[in-house]
Amino acid sequence: MRFVQLLLAVLAGASFAATANVPPVAAAPAGRAAHGMAAAGPAAAPKANRSTADHSKFKELRQSFKSGPEVTKACLSCHTEAAKQVHKTKHWTWEWVNPENNQKLGKKHIVNNFCTATASNEKFCNACHAGYGWEDDKFDFTSETNVDCLVCHDTTGSYKKLPGLAGHPTYKDIEYPPKSGKIVKAVDLPKVAQNVGRTSRATCGACHFYGGGGDAVKHGDLDSSLKNPARYLDVHMDAKGLNFTCATCHATQGHDIPGSRYTPTGKAEDAAHMRGKENKGNAASCQACHGSAPHKATDRLNSHTGKIACQTCHIPQFARAQATKMSWDWSTAGKLTPDGKRMQIKDASGHHDRYDSNKGDFTYESDVVPEYAWVNGKVKYTLLGDPVNTQGVTRINEYGGSPTDGASRIWPLKVFRGKQPYDLETRSLLVPHTAVGYGEKDDSGFWANYKWDAALKAGAEAAGRPFGGKFDFVSTEMSWPITHMVAPKADALTCTQCHSKSGRLQGIKGVYMPRRDANGILDLIGWLAVLGTFVGVLIHGGLRVYLGRKG
Amino acid sequence: MSAHALKKIYVFKIFERIWHWSQAALIIFLLLTGFEVHGSYGNFGFEKAVNYHTIAAWSLVGLWLFAIFWHFTTGEWKQYIPTLRKVDAMAKYYLFGIFVNAPHPFRLTVLKKHNPLQRLAYLGVMLFIGPLIWFTGWFYIFYDKWLAWGWDTYLTLEWVAFFHTMAAFMMLLFLIAHVYLTTTGHTPLAHIKAMITGWEEVEAEDGK
After folding, report:
1. Residue A540's domain spans which residues?
2. For B56-96, how does the pLDDT look when each residue is reduced to its tens digit (9 = 90+)?
3. Residue A369 lies in a domain
4. CB–CB of A526 and B158 under 8 A?
5. Per-residue pLDDT averaged across A348-361, rounded?
6. Whether residue A33 has pLDDT greater than 50
7. Taking CB atoms and an 8 Å limit, are A533 and B38 in contact across chains?
8. For the domain B6-203, what is the CATH superfamily, name and number?
């Protein structure tokens, strides 16, 4: 059995490496886990037996499950409220209405400048939905058994949801990717079900590390290097040190996970959260543990915390272990070889594509210096139907913030730039239908036939939007607050990285920074006066000496 | 030089001399570190300059507390009562008389150890430049408390920095002029010697 597992792991690893350009499988590639800490599986820590229940002893789980929903049914026979709780979360609804401006956000609604949108691509994208069977707009969001417990609670690292299967793992051995000649084995549901446990960096990371179509693509501060990070990469998740899981900070109750880019906390409250005391603030903020005066009282650093997010100094660069995608130009997608084949051209590093017929041109960067902005937590998206800026850059999302609103701090951001299709008639973003379901023949999918018209038409239909037939590409920009991969304090920014004329906060307005800022007129008058006085005393002294000698 | 006979009088007491020289050292050090923080030049490095500046500032505050106490308990504060008498004569002396060995219009005594221009200058330093530097400096130091103390309504760091820098320039101007004027004794180093030993050589008045 163990040999088979190992073989499977190696096979999966090999298949992953070979298909690195296909958006990856949703779960941690077993090959990597085996490579890192074979015995521990995906979680870095050895399995601490702190639970009061050994799920392998439950007769409810000793069944030959045929499908995910069957497992969920068994889970719910004890955890009666779990599905109802999950139903309320963004992990399930992929929808969230921003109370500030009533914008409907969530993966179901927004258009980003990576893979753009989920509509018409559900079978593929929704491999990362915490549920089973979302393949089009008919998905039943009230079904409890469609909740996928295993994707978050697997501890074996063997549970994988493959893109194209609409959120299901594979229940039989299949050739994946299609026509690749590689076989992905059916998931061992009883084994996974009997080994459920707490979420881990690997389970959260199965989706969050691979957003945007591959490892490290989207966030810049979340990628598979956080599965077993060293201290330099993340002081809190340091596998040999504090070994935090995601949920250590994203302290979850009743499946409601705090901390979100849709509702970021620009200026977390000052005091650390106390046990037993009701804390309304964001548990996933630095301040929730550290308060707002975490530095030595004698140094000047605490006087920075009112204006500067901790992340600004303590995450000096993002993408410190792996390169992250920094730009994506869809307008060049679809170029094929003379014989009509897909092209994938590697960049100088040899690790990433700089061109892919499916997606267009990319750039990847590592150790990226963030851009900085005042952020107060409010956010406005450019959604389907909203006008784009054809003259300049359309901002997919725009964080509010100002030096004077009392609710902002200066934050580091990954700003992702790209070009994507928009409708020349409605002047609004378009949804391309790109990916097709596993084993399906679907000529409108861009990745099947490279025809924009068909892809955009199908996408618009699925999204319930009009499509005038004429389209072009518009420059877009999307901001991602950087908050993970906190470096050891010795690696934090030094004073002069900001306190200088051409420092990192060069463009930040509304705050006086010694050495960056000075009143030029005062300096001019001051130094002229100094010079004048100096010359004055020199002349005076010179005269005294000269006339004294003469006299 | 003057043909008059010289006599020595004890003008600067030990506390005054210690006060003067440590204050001089601290002010020069504060100017050096301060203008580095300001970005005028580089020496210690920003972080060290900031820390040194803060330490030196608090040291000078401590020194001033002692000095204020000393001046009031000894009555020496009277030395700084401003007078306009003979100010014009002093100005005239520095502008013309000094070049032709004219007699100094002010005769230094233990009870009046500063000439009228000195009185005005030192009083200006202590009542204007000093407080301006102290208060803006304290505002700076307690920047992180502004919100809690409600000061953020009235203060901006930009203006605090402006006046702090302005006061620093004035202090630097004073320093240059002051150091130069120490050379105007009967020998170039006479005043400095007096400030070190406490004994000033003054012209003995005829008939006394």
Report:
1. 518-551
2. 999 999 999 999 999 889 888 887 887 777 788 888 888 88
3. no
4. no
5. 95
6. no
7. no
8. Transmembrane di-heme cytochromes, Chain C (1.20.950.20)
The tens digit of pLDDT for each residue in A184-202 reads 999 999 999 999 999 999 9
Tell me which residue in A494, A525, A530 faces B47 most closely, judged by beta carbons. Answer: A494
Buried b (16+ CB within 10 A) or exposed e, A217-226: bbbbbbbbbb
Of A293, A526, A544, which is closest to B98 when you measure between CB atoms? A544
How much is the pLDDT for A26?
Answer: 44
Number of domains in chain A: 2
**Which amino acid appears at position A131 of this protein?**
G
Task: List the single best residue of A523, A543, A550 to mutate versus B (max B Cβ within 10 A).
Answer: A523
Residue B163's nearest CA partner among B139, B146, B147, B127 is B139
Distance from CA of A297 to the nearest CA of B (A): 11
Distance of CA A236 to the CA centre of its chain: 18
A547 and chain B in contact, CB less than 8 A = yes
What is the rounded distance in angstroms from the CA atom of residue A134 to the CA atom of residue A318? Answer: 33
Radius of gyration of chain A (CA): 27
**Does some domain include residue A24?**
yes
Instruction: Give the pLDDT confidence of A43-76 residue by residue, as tens digits.
Output: 444 455 688 999 999 999 999 999 999 999 999 9
- pLDDT of B1 higher than 80: no
CA of A250, closest CA in chain B: separation in Å?
29
Residue the block writes with tokens 């890192």: A36
ipTM value for the complex: 0.89
Q: Is B186 exposed, middle or buried (0-12, 13-18, 19+ CB in 10 A)?
A: middle
Whether residue A29 has pLDDT greater than 60: no
- Out of A279-288, A306-315, B45-54, B155-164, pick the least confident: A279-288
Residue A167 resides in a domain = yes
DSSP string for residues in A386-454: SBP-SSS-EESEEE---TTSSS-EEEEEEEEEEEEEEETTT-BB--------TT---TT-HHHH--HHH
Where is the domain boundary, A196, A212, A228?
A212
Are A179 and A133 spatial neighbours (Cβ–Cβ below 8 Å)?
no
Which of A500, A515, A541 faces B183 most closely, judged by CB atoms? A541
**Are the C-beta atoms of A322 and A223 separated by less than 8 Å?**
yes
Taking CA atoms, what residue in B is nearest to A494? B47
Residue A186 in domain: yes
Q: Of A212, A243, A265, which residue sits at a domain end? A: A212
CA–CA separation, B22 and B17 (whole Å): 8
Round to whole Å and give the CA distance between A405 and A307. Answer: 11
Average pLDDT over residues B170-191: 90
Beta-carbon separation of A534 and B156 below 8 A: no
What residues in chain B have their Cβ under 8 A from chain A's Cβ atoms? 37-40, 45-47, 50-51, 54, 94, 98-101, 143-144, 147, 156-158, 161-162, 165-166, 169, 172-173, 176-177, 180, 183-184
Q: Which residues contact A276 (CB under 8 A, 6 or more apart)?
A: none
- Residue A365: which of A327, A328, A329, A323 has the closest Cα? A323
Distance CA B129, CA A321 (A): 53
Residues in A closer than 8 angstroms to B171, CB to CB, are none
Average pLDDT over residues A378-405: 95
Tokens of A516: 């960056």
pLDDT of residue B11: 82
Kindly tell me if the per-residue pLDDT of A41 is higher than 90: no
Share of chain A above pLDDT 70, in %: 91
